[in-house]
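We modelled the chain as a single entity of 535 amino acids. Its sequence is:
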Amino acid sequence: MQSQPSYAPAGGAPVWNSQPYAQQFSGPSGPPPAQFSQQSQYPPNNGKWGEEGNDHTGHAEPQRFKPKKKWNDIPFLIFYILTVAGFATVSGLALYSWVKNDGGGGGLGGGRTGNKGILNSSTVYLLLLTTACSMVLTLLYMILLRAFPKPILHVSLILTPIGALAVAIYYFYVKYYSGAIIFVVFVILFAFVYLGYRKRVPMAAMFLNIVLDIAKHHKMGVYGTAIIAIIVQAGVGIWFVFTIVATYLRWGNAACQAGSAANPTSNTSCTNATLIGLIIFEVFAYLWMSQVIANVTLATLAGGPFGSWYYFGPRGQGMPPHPTRSSFVRASTLSLGSIAFGSLIVTLLQLIRMLLNWASQNAAEDGNPVVAILACCAACFVGCIEGLVEYFNKYAYIEIALYGKPYIKAAKDTWSLITDRGVDAIINDTIVALAMTWGSFFIGLLCVLFAYVYLRATKPAYNSDGSYTPAILVYAWFVGFQVAQSLTAAIDAGVSTIFVGLAEHPEILQQRAPALFNLIAQDYPRVVHGIHGTV
């Protein structure tokens, strides 16, 4: 096993130039500002891990990092379990009919046309290939991120407008003008954002390198967790794809009416309301499951390798044994109700936004521009709320992971800590999360391009008039983006955990990463002024 660097000498003041981060980055030279030099260090201690205030190595357990062994938000846990069970039931019924009908015909490539009236197996193969493409691209992106941590921030920010421009040019070339115009708008917006954010790269690069250094010494805990999350997300996405296609096959009007004609005594309903209701429920269940998987991953990483590094130090210098496994057990049992609670809020907002977008499109097609514009504005408003909730929830989940709080208390404490310590200023100036999101967006664009080329090359019968192209391309982007986000979220989780630790105990960062502490002390003195009290 590769030995870890010594982040701080035990029982003494930090050696300012001995850190790997000080060697990699030219932060402010010299000792920290005078007002920080007298801050207390975490003292050595005695005891055993598992006892109050002690760990297995004889070092003091910080008072804040003691997750409570209590089941929280049980009603939401029960609701989540029932929702997953309901989705599994509907999926089982739909897939049973799908298998009996040989998947509606169709296959891989253009040789088997399949049923023209409904989505068929060729759609499933396309979306399976899109999922595989997104996984390969995400793993490649992660390898490049590990090998080139500094330039990847600039590259991630630049690639998205360039990728959007390439897609726009291609769409103009094939005369798909509506899609081309949308991507031209994306190019303009992303270009302006990059020009405003490029000066914030130095601090973001320092955060990224610290997190990557931690991940290097906890490969299975960080990258292993992220890869497992990708596989689980991809599996749930594939399950969702099969379920949606099978639902159209069983309850769609064309298939349902054909079945009723063959079996007049059947009581199967063939109304659009049945199909729409099932699709909405399936989308809701999938979005919620996807959110919970991503947030359990975040809580596992925050309460495992990253939180343990911040509060206890590197492995062999105070970190408890098996931090990732212990954190996952807490996140998937005791805290699952709290994670499901927060995820439900985002899921409902996502579903409302999707329904508003659908209503806007239908109104535009029906010649009602006023209704279309109002629905579009409402969707944008809901999207803004969704983004704020997701931003805030991320830190609430870290509070849940580190301290075992219920969701409401974690949300309140997160708001108080961030506003009280001024960490919001650093969060707003740190672009790691933005770069990771843009990288995921770019992977989604590549998946869209792959799906579009596949459709044009294979020409499936169900899409002979191109009516299904927009929906398939949207889903291709969604799959690529979700899979990429699951992996890059591992890095963002480390940065966010440092933020929460900084809000709670800024003096610990003085030991762990002096160069970063000096930079924060210089630019944001309010954050590191004094020691925040425990609650």
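As a brief sanity check on the tokenised model: Residues 1-63, 107-114, 531-535 have pLDDT under 50 and may be disordered. The radius of gyration is 25 Å.
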